Amino acid sequence: MADHSSIEWTDATWNPITGCSIVSPGCTNCYAMRLAGTRLKNIDSRKGLTRDTKAGPVWTGEVRLNKQWLYQPFDWKKPRRVFVCAHGDLFAENVPDDWILDVFTVMAAASHHTYQVLTKRADRMLEFVSRRDLLDDIYANWYTFSGGAREVQSWPLHNIWLGVSAEDQKRADDRVPHLLETPAKVRFVSAEPLLGPIEFRDIWDGLNSLNRRSGPTLDWIIVGGESGRDARPMHPDWARSIRDQCAATGVPFFFKQWGAWRETGYQLCAHPLPAGMIAPAPPHWVGAGYGLDRPSMAIENIGKKAAGRLLDGVEHNAFPEVAA
């Protein structure tokens, strides 16, 4: 938890709840899981949340409410974007509804901040946020905190952005439709680590919302490759495709990072590879992406800092435009 963050799309992280479990391929190299089982393993907020395996630390599924941090947003006087539960998942299976209600209560009361909630449990988020009595519960809960009532605000709360992680088409197909049904001021997708191509237009078309702005839409898409010791490559054409989809539909696009890998250029390969497949030995050839008529390309692991975050020479930093 910190009142500042190196994550490019937020200003601060807030971890009232820590701990999680593995639910999909995007979890394999989770940085929060690795930290909880190494550098942070002996501090109270992380102790016992992972178990050691040959592949490294793995979440046990245990979660923890860190009451000492629950009210931290009130201490931050300057408004900021706050990434909620960066070292866990607010809607993880073992998180009780009462804990989620406590977090929503603080977000509603410390309303000078903007909160970015990201989950892989889109179905549970939809169920929780769609509760008819949720706003009443938030204010009743605040009364137990402070002994006083709060002014009623509009619903959905103006300062809470709700998003889902989607690392490939299957996870996008599973999670984005739930997100689009979820009441939220801003709905966003974090395609990080991007492990395969995603065609968002198919999802939007299926819900008849691509060109119908009065219906459910996505307000923001973040794309990023994986970093760290065992980082898996992101095919550059996967990122380009999402960038182009966003440009075509007016959705703000944020390119967070290449991750550890970056292309070294298109070159001819004696044995063309299927899309996205990576040759195991140098030069690391990767098959051309999503049906484009291009030769295979060579990629290399040069580390996150060296790889940077320019996509075709452009830094993409778009954020949602939120009406007051």
Give a nutshell description of this structure:
This protein is an alpha/beta fold and 324 residues long.
Describe the structure.
The chain is built from nine helices and 16 strands. The chain has helices spanning 31-36, 72-75, 97-109, 122-129, 134-146, 169-181, 200-206, 236-249, 304-307; strands at residues 12-14, 17-18, 50-53, 56-59, 64-65, 81-84, 114-119, 160-165, 186-191, 220-224, 253-257, 261-266, 284-286, 297-301, 310-311, 314-315. Strand 15 and strand 16 form a beta hairpin. Residues 208-213 have low confidence and may be disordered.
Layout of helices and strands, plus pairs?
Blueprint: E1 12-14, E2 17-18, H1 31-36, E3 50-53, E4 56-59, E5 64-65, H2 72-75, E6 81-84, H3 97-109, E7 114-119, H4 122-129, H5 134-146, E8 160-165, H6 169-181, E9 186-191, H7 200-206, E10 220-224, H8 236-249, E11 253-257, E12 261-266, E13 284-286, E14 297-301, H9 304-307, E15 310-311, E16 314-315
Parallel strand pairs: 1-6, 6-7, 7-8, 8-9, 9-10, 10-11
Antiparallel strand pairs: 2-5, 3-4, 12-14, 13-14, 15-16
Helix pairs in contact: 3-5, 4-6
Structural class category: alpha/beta
Gross morphology is globular
List low-pLDDT spans: 208-213
Beta-strand percent range: 15-25%
Q: Mean of the pLDDT scores?
A: 87
Helicity, in percent?
25-40%
Q: Largest sheet, order of strands side by side?
A: 1-6-7-8-9-10-11
Question: What is the distance, rounded to the nearest whole angstrom, between the alpha carbons of the first and last residues?
Answer: 28 Å
Number of strands: 16
Question: Total helix count?
Answer: 9
Task: Describe the sheet with the most strands.
Answer: 7 strands, parallel
Rg (C-alpha, Å) = 20 Å
Order of helices and strands: EEHEEEHEHEHHEHEHEHEEEEHEE
